[in-house]
Amino acid sequence: MNEMLKRDFDITISNNDLLDEAFTQASYVNEHKDQNLKFYERIEFLGDAVLQLVVSEYIFKRYERLPQGRLTRLRAAMVNEKSFSTFARECHFNEYIRLGKGEERANARDRDSLLCDIFESFVGALYLDQGKAAVEKFCHQVIFPKLDSGMFDEFFDHKTELQEVAQEDGPVAIDYELVEEFGPANDQMFRVKVLIANKEFGIGEGHSKKEAEQKAAQQALKHFDTSNMNLL
Amino acid sequence: MNEMLKRDFDITISNNDLLDEAFTQASYVNEHKDQNLKFYERIEFLGDAVLQLVVSEYIFKRYERLPQGRLTRLRAAMVNEKSFSTFARECHFNEYIRLGKGEERANARDRDSLLCDIFESFVGALYLDQGKAAVEKFCHQVIFPKLDSGMFDEFFDHKTELQEVAQEDGPVAIDYELVEEFGPANDQMFRVKVLIANKEFGIGEGHSKKEAEQKAAQQALKHFDTSNMNLL
C-alpha cells in the first residue's frame, strides 16, 4: 500500500495505523477480535467532509462567475458514489481493502458503495496525517483533471451557463449556427458556431448538434473568465 | 460591522468587499444596479462546506469513541437552519444584512432561512480572508460551547452511548436506580444513579426520570473518555 501510494501519488503516510483503519471493513474486525482493530467508518465520516470542502473551494475559485445553484449541481456531480467509486478503482484502492471472508465471497470488493466509502476514508486518513494541502494535491491528481477530460460534462450545461453569464447585464442575442456536417454517413459529425450579438465567440464539434453546441458554448465561456464584462 | 467583529470576536477582516458581499441579499443588489454589487450566495456555498468540515473535525476528535452513525446525527443537530439562525442572532448578524425594501417590509431580517444563509456566508468570507484556523477560533467562541451548555442535548442520547461504550467488549449489566424524589409537588425533581456491573458510575437530577437518567449516563461516560477500557 505504502509503495503504491509513494509511486502513484508521491504520498507517504507516516501513521500506518491510520492507513490500516481506513482500509479495514467491520467484517474484518469481527473476524480478528483478538487484534483490537478499528474499521474505517469514523475516518470516512471525516473524509467525506474534507472532500466536500476541497471540491467546493476548487470549483468556487475556478468558476468565478458560476452562480450558487450551478456550483451546487456541479459539486453534486463530482461528489457522489458513482464518481468516488470510479476514482477508488482507478487508484487501485480495491486491492487493499481488508474484508471478512463472507464479504469477500459476496464480492464486496467490487461494490460501489464500499469503494466510495474507502475513497472517503483514505482522504480522511491523508487529512489527519498531513492536513488539507495534501488532500488538495491528491485531488489535483485524481479528481480535478476529470473536469477537463469531460467526466462531469453531462451535469454541466455550458449553453445555460453562457446564457447566464452573457446576459448578466441585460438581454443579448445568442445564436447557434450549423457551419458544416462532415464525416462518413455512419459516423456523422457536426460543426456549430455560437454568435453573441452577431459576433463569433466559439466553435465546437460533436456527434450531434446538441453536443457541438455545448462545445461551442464551452469555448465561448473562456471569453468571460475575467471579471471584466466589457469584452462585448 | 468591523467594530462589532473586533469587539465581540477579535476578528479583523482585511477584505471589506468580501464582508459586504457576505451580508448583501440579492434584493439589495437589484435595487442598486449601478453599484455593481455581489450578493452572498456563492460565499454561502463555500461557508456551508467549511462549517461542515470544522464541526465534523471537532466532534470527531472530541468524541473519540462515538461511532459514525452517532457522529452523523450529532453533526446534523449542530449544522442546520435552526441552530445557525440562532447563532446569527446571537452574533447580531441580523442587524448588518443589506436587504431590498420589499424584503425589509416582509421581515426577511427575522427569517430563519436568511439568517442561516448569512451565518454561512460570514464563515465563508472569514475563511477566504483568513483560512480555516480563524473559522475554528470563531466556532470555539460561538458553536462549540453550546455542546457543553446542552443546546444539542435533545439530539444526544447519552444512555444509548453509554450502552455502546460500556458493552464494547461484551455484555455488561447497566442499571438505573431512582435514589430520591424531592422538591415541591408542583416542581417535582428526580435523582437517579447508574450502575455498571453493580458499581456506581454516575448520578443525575432532572424534572423527569428520563432526564435524570440521561444526566447520570452523561456523567458515567466521563469514565470512558480515555481509550483504556480496563477501568471496569
UniProtKB/TrEMBL annotation, chains A, B:
Q: Where does Mg(2+) bind?
A: 44, 117, 120
Please name the GO terms that the record assigns under molecular function: double-stranded RNA binding; identical protein binding; metal ion binding; ribonuclease III activity; rRNA binding
Q: What is this protein called?
A: Ribonuclease 3
Q: Where is the DRBM domain?
A: 157-226
Q: What organism is recorded for this protein?
A: Lentilactobacillus kosonis
Which enzyme class? hydrolase
User: What is this protein's function per UniProt?
Assistant: Digests double-stranded RNA. Involved in the processing of primary rRNA transcript to yield the immediate precursors to the large and small rRNAs (23S and 16S). Processes some mRNAs, and tRNAs when they are encoded in the rRNA operon. Processes pre-crRNA and tracrRNA of type II CRISPR loci if present in the organism.
Q: What is its main location?
A: cytoplasm
**InterPro entries listed in its UniProt record:** dsRBD_dom (IPR014720), RNase_III (IPR011907), RNase_III_dom (IPR000999), RNase_III_sf (IPR036389)
Keyword tRNA processing in the entry? The reply is: yes
